[in-house]
């Protein structure tokens, strides 16, 4: 109980998978934002040492483990909580939930996306399934034969933004590096930014090689760990941003049955085009939810209730433009082990995408971004409307240079904040649709903060 | 091109006694990089060509930029201008020089890849300093010529004296409504045509609205989203019916036959008054990152001339190629020689003995490209 009080509140946990139960490994966390360790095995000595340094320790439980043995081990060690990772039989999950409640442990469930529990009062919701963020490599002559469009970005942001729109809980995504990979540090920075710009936390997870070298205090691994810490800290130092709302004037009405839990769907396609979009879960569809939107895309018209239809009628009567998906068009229900669209679904998606793309055209729906190929962005607004934040994550292997942002607002000042860099004041200049800002360089990720007239 | 084709080209054309194709001087300069020295280098080059004033003073000058492919595709993460696009600082320096020489209006044009949107936005997507370019000289304008643009009609420019593929081309009227036309190109290879220089740059004056893979069947598609391979490279489909159609739809469908001829026809239809080639930094092995085997190189050269065939001939010599090489000889292994085709249309001379090289000598500038 005491331990639970002295460690940070669960909502402030910055999680990482941890492979060592040696208390000396905690030295690696000095001046590091990670404050919550997920372990496959726990010991009393380690948990006590961690507690003294205000780190929370969570025991990871996997389906197939003996629940009784796990609970005994966790209780003896004095952990702060359990993490249920993967797909559990309902009776086993229920038993573990009850035990956690009785022990006053925090329970974090990280199921496959298809089993995601969005309607809970848990402080943290999340999933163990995610894409490893980055640029999808082109393979074969066909992909290289013509001077076609930009690289496709693998990202979880569409999924995460939908989940954030569904729940007020803290969102974790616990995707792990590709098996057998030995990744350069910037790929971890991508994973941090991919989650953070969507208002979620990535459960830090190192590849086996980096993990081994880190615990052996290899200087390069330590340097990589420091950079990972700096990027986590960058987002953690601005807790207000987690509460800011999507500022896009394009609303995407979606739910779990219309592809919202999949990656590479319509939300990601819009995001890759850098059109600021606000996901509106169908169950939260209302006149208020569409306030400020100019365009709305309703992916699955057949799922609308009468109240939903009335909200959309009010929206269109007040000048909003509504685009509805084809009436007979449905995404498959989410399946375990599958988080992206298959080829057939992509073909179907292209039908609606052509319409969406044509609807978007060159409209400025909050911000238009130029020279941002290989990047992901998210436009947010502060609660009083005097500040706009544009998150930018660069997933290429090179710094992004000479980016231009056209903001559809009247803004007097702009600052560029970036991990490991001092803030830079930028000079917005007026353009027809609002102001433009030029950004010279973004190494891995950045946040453009604008002071605007409400 | 075979002797038979060459003879066939001129058969029936009222040319009178065969006149040698025109030759004009070409100037070469060495420049270390894009950060400094460009203005001085261009001032020297243009002086060596007799000065820009007599060419541009009080005139509308249209500069066709070489912006190949989608701006989203980078090679090794480098800026586009360092690899397969003409560099924006080269463009800025040329614009300033032309402005200082008294041009009334300077129009920067390109048929921007797969879009009919404003050229300024395409340039911003390329990471270009649009505001600085707009302020580099009085009267700077931008026009995406991939569709009809601001004009009420397309301009129909006829190929003279005779054509192989199309008798005339429908183009954005910016190419007609100009006094001076400049081809501002990159020194690089080309997968289909062997080299991309000031001639091949002019292939890009054609609008995808008329000649694109998604061009309208009857009328142009003013919102093109694709390239021109089906119409031009492979001849799989005709251009919009509103435009002049192929002379012989049964002719060869080989891109190595068609693209050099189309390029030569375009240059004959839309004469180039000033050719400038950015060879400071570039790539060898192809025209863009979608070609395998590309290599970043730094020849450190600028080339300018008043005749595009002569300018390209000198540029080819600098690259280590014979500008009069036939098909089958590098770099024209699988294509016909665009320079010779343009020469056959009377555009300019490929014979280096007839071309005066000023500034740096070819031997001093030599930077061998792959053979």
| Largest interface summary | A-B, 23 and 29 residues
Helix content of chain A: 25-40%
Give the strand line-up of the largest sheet of chain B.
4-3-2-7-10-13-1-14
Count of helical stretches of chain B? 13
Helix content of chain B: 25-40%
Describe the main β-sheet of chain A briefly.
6 strands, antiparallel
Question: Features of this protein?
Answer:
heterodimer; A: 454 residues; alpha/beta; 6-stranded antiparallel beta sheet; 5-stranded parallel beta sheet; globular; B: 371 residues; 17% strand
Task: Please characterize this protein's 3D structure.
The complex is a heterodimer of chains A (454) and B (371). Chain A has 454 residues and is an alpha/beta fold. Chain A is built from 13 helices and 24 strands. Chain A has a 6-stranded antiparallel beta sheet. In chain A, strands 1-2-3-4-5 form a 5-stranded parallel beta sheet, with helices on one face. In chain A, helix 7 packs parallel to helix 9 and helix 8 packs across helix 9 (219-236). The radius of gyration of chain A is 22 Å and the shape is globular. The model of chain A is unreliable at 139-144 (pLDDT under 50). Chain B has 371 residues and is of the alpha/beta class. In chain B, 26% of the residues lie in helices and 17% in strands. Chain B has helices at residues 3-10, 38-48, 53-56, 88-100, 119-125, 130-134, 198-201, 208-211, 229-233, 255-269, 308-318, 338-344, 362-365; strands at 26-30, 60-65, 105-110, 140-144, 155-158, 168-171, 180-186, 188-190, 194-196, 274-279, 282-284, 295-297, 301-305, 357-359. Chain B has an 8-stranded mixed beta sheet with strand order 4-3-2-7-10-13-1-14, sandwiched between helices. A two-stranded antiparallel ribbon of chain B has the order 5-6. Chain B has a two-stranded antiparallel ribbon with strand order 8-9. In chain B, strand 8 (188-190) and strand 9 form a beta hairpin. The chains are: A alpha/beta (454), B alpha/beta (371). Chains A and B meet through strand 19 of A and helix 5 of B.
